[in-house]
Amino acid sequence: MQLSSPISYKSSANATIYRDGGSLELRFTADDDRSYCIFMEVVHDSPDDCKRYHQPMLFKESFDINNSKPEDFINYLNWQQMKGLISEIKMDIGQDFEKHSDCAHLELIENIANNNGWLIES
Questions:
Q1: Which of 48, 59, 86, 111 has a 20 to 30 A CA-CA distance from 78?
Q2: Which are the contacts of 48, defined by CB distance < 8 A and separation ≥ 6?
Q3: Which of 1, 24, 29, 27 is nearest to 111 (CA)?
Q4: Coil, strand or helix: which one is 24?
């Protein structure tokens, strides 16, 4: 059973990995034509070969690790909602997904969501 998300993806997905040890950010436009950001903070004491992530946080517009305001925070997402969002993004990009500039980061987010916050590196 997939839980509904507070927002639905429309277009323009891009992803970034932070140099803080692996936190991830996913930005996109939702069906209300507003920009949103999902921030997935890495658990800082997780070992290099087995990263763990805190529950994804949904923000209005964008997220700035040093300057985000509490009123920009919308809600926490669960891993099922993240899987659904990544599926919507992959369907939107279609057969060009492998050529997308953020393909590796999007696949990383998908792997983390599929493993409920754990990523086992190979």
A1: 48
A2: 121
A3: 24
A4: strand
Residue 3 near residue 80 (C-beta atoms within 8 A): yes
CA 73 and chain centroid, separation:
14
CA of 80: how far to CAs of 56, 58, 72, in Å? Answer: 11, 14, 23
Q: Considering Cα of 97, then 95, then 89, then 112, what sign does the dihedral take?
A: negative
d(CA 89, CA 14): 10
Going by C-alpha positions, the residue among 7, 4, 8 that lies closest to residue 91 is: 8
